[in-house]
Amino acid sequence: MPSYQELIAQKNELDKRIEQARNSESKEALATIKQLIDTFGFTAQQVFPWKPEEKKKVQAKYYDPESGAVWTGRGKAPKWIDGKDRSEYEIQATA
User: What three-state secondary structure class fits 73?
Assistant: First the structure.
């Protein structure tokens, strides 16, 4: 029966051989993939589909009934609400 040290040495040798085989096969696979992409003209979106990150839309907090304009409350206040009581223009949340 082999000793513990011999088994460890065999394991290390197998790990090296596994890594070498993985490297060579991965290079072959990558070359095949590149060749197929060139042949069929695939795009990156077709090969690796992803959805672009959707921008979060902020709900309007203020509404001007005269002009129909809305404001989220972010950034500089529009002229129709600037200097006025904002509570008059608040949009009431519906539950």
Answer: coil
DSSP SS3 for 63: strand
Neighbours of 62 (CB within 10 A): 19
Spell out the domain ranges in the chain: 4-47, 51-95
Stated as kind and residue range, the H or E segment containing 24 is helix 4-40
> Taking the complete model, does pTM exceed 0.85, yes or no?
no
CA distances from 80 to 58, 71, 74, 75 (A): 20, 10, 15, 14
**Each residue's pLDDT tens digit, 26-62:** 999 999 999 999 999 999 889 899 888 888 888 888 8
